[in-house]
Amino acid sequence: MIIENNLTLDKIDLAILRLMQENARVSNVQIAKDLEMAPSAILERVKKLEQKGVIVQYTTRINPAAIDLKLLAFISLKASDSIGCVDTAKELAKIEEVQEVHIIAGDDCYLVKVRTADSASLMALMRNSFSKIKNILSIRTTIVLETVKEQQQLKIPEY
Amino acid sequence: MIIENNLTLDKIDLAILRLMQENARVSNVQIAKDLEMAPSAILERVKKLEQKGVIVQYTTRINPAAIDLKLLAFISLKASDSIGCVDTAKELAKIEEVQEVHIIAGDDCYLVKVRTADSASLMALMRNSFSKIKNILSIRTTIVLETVKEQQQLKIPEY
DNA sequence: TATAATTATGAATATTATTCTGTTTATTCA
DNA sequence: TGAATAAACAGAATAATATTCATAATTATA
Q1: Which has the higher per-residue pLDDT, B61 or B6?
Q2: pLDDT in the model for residue B38
Q3: Residue pair A33/A41 in contact by the 8 Å Cβ criterion
Q4: Contact list, A154 vs chain B (CB under 8 Å)
């Protein structure tokens, strides 16, 4: 894991992040034009943002329906883990269909986001993968009927 | 919105998506080398994947902590909307701090994912933004203590 | 099987990334 | 405060990549 030392981001860094968050394939030249700077200076900053771990990844968002992943579900799990233990969470994280695993406050212990083709394959996933994980006491599955908004983009402050 | 006509993705398309999902800034030349094809052929396919809406966006994942967004929460909402009505959902989607809005099956009507600086700013958000939305009957907020996995990457089938 | 349509190749060109040097700007510390 | 030091920037040169386009190969279709 990359250590984040000097995490003070100035106005220019934030502007770069704003542009790149919108379009990861924007060119240095374009960013430079927008910010009225030299491409070489932009490149240097981008490299630094990568090194500092501010930029985690450049990723391509794919339409889930295009690859036949039409079902989205959230699963709340209770486990007999000691509190603060992430073993069960790590087991859940290993499952490919699992996009998110959060340890949450309150009644339930874990909140998991899962994407599968359909309800049958979700059922299969639960039977084959979830059931193999020890310490799980109960499962509550919530099917998403419609997604109105889904973005991982963050609200980047002005400065 | 782009209409998705010919959504039959072959093995090569899936391979391209797999590479680009991992790294949106991978070069055509690199993809071409990996798949043992000409860069021009790859480019043509990528353009088509964009046009067909298979590729939704190229985005940069930013470390939320780096821009002081350390709190993640899920909010379950009940509303007095008629079933299937997305008005409330659309209002929720307008809020910048809201990353996701799902209409869900079961007791609650909406599931919302929110990111803020801290619990104080979450409280402020709820007071200022959520409370302005009509028809909301009840709110249940779940704070995330720790995120073990968070990826929007999809499991791309072999062929 | 012939024809049409799609997809791929390879070379030429345009654009962009990257490197490097000199300069400016900011920061540190006596 | 002000010299010493470090960080950031600009601009030019070069390397790498994207893009275009004519042609060839492949695939689908009648």
Answers
A1: B61
A2: 98
A3: no
A4: 62, 64, 67, 69, 99, 115
